Amino acid sequence: MFLLVYHDGFSKYDVPPGYAFSGRRFPDFFDYFARRTPSGRCEIVSPGKATRKQLLTVHTAEYLDYVEQLADEIPGSHTTYLSPDTQVERDMLEANKLIVGATITGVDLVRERGLPVYTFGGLHHAGPSRGGGFCVLNDVAAAAQHALDRGMERVMVLDTDAHAGDGTMDIFYKDPRVLYVSVHHDPSSFYPGRGFIEELGEGDGLGYSVNFPLPPFAGIRCYRIFWDDVLRPIATDFSPDLIIRNGGSDPYVSDIQNLGYSTSLGLTKRDLYTVGRWTGTLRDEAESKYLDIMGSGYNVAAIPSCWYSMMMGSLGLPLEIEEESIPERVDSPECISKARGVSEKLRELLKPHWACLS
Questions:
Q1: Which secondary-structure segment (H or E) carries 28?
Q2: Can 125 be counted among the known catalytic residues?
Q3: How far apart are CA 340 and CA 215, in angstroms?
Q4: 192: which residues sit within 8 A by CB, 6+ positions away?
Q5: pLDDT band at 203; cut points 50, 70, 90
Q6: What pTM, to 2 d.p., does this model score?
Q7: Which residue out of 124, 125, 146, 184 is catalytically annotated?
């Protein structure tokens, strides 16, 4: 048995309307999910919108006032943009509040029911006083902070999006109660230009921000290096009360088809299932509560099956998945060598903070 937090209002989160981050991803997945999930296995829960008080736990008052002002400007005018890719308009902002409300509801449900909870969003680029990368309000950070405010002592955020979650990282950069771990495409020439191995946190939080940048065309063998060498030992050592995983299908080998660029990662749907299974294993071994936030992906046709593969993997439920061909460059010897190099450098940087890596 597991729980799914869903609301039809999620579909109004189009940034900008009709662009790559299409709001149709949410109802498309829900329909796909409903056709394949036996009744009685999952309970659907409807969330409410996050309040200003809840949003203030991760964003500044000045920033919240600013986005409210933008939302009431003329839609489509240049003044309504936080960044070239992130427009703010009223319906979209209210949908974002609903998405944040869903992750906060998810935290309350895992505390009260002890069951895995799944919902949608992953708007991890929004920082305390900024937005961008299709993200205005950070639902991942709001969920982690809500868990701390409700008495959980250790929260691990596992970000498997192809892009580093710079906003989430910044919000908890000095907080050792939140272990932020991200595996993502090398940010040297890739949005958001953050998520390098040297970004380890500050003050009491030094060593609690962990970034594993993958080389282009990294596939499941490169991800395995991250899992075995870095994530599993420190997650076991940290022993989180709650694991929050966020990310969707942008590491999928056929994710981007028409945007003029590519995430250049090489996971198949079977591999996404494996990533989900690894995450579920960490959850089970640590006896952690679990909240999963699905969101990213730009090949709209592939999103439902990719998200479903990760979900079923994390639940440990069987799923028939067709074999897919992948480019020869995926997990090439050179690619694997680069991933091992990242692992060695990152472990060396983390050793002073994690005895398990010594």
A1: helix 25-36
A2: yes
A3: 10
A4: 125, 132, 133, 163, 164, 166
A5: very high
A6: 0.96
A7: 125
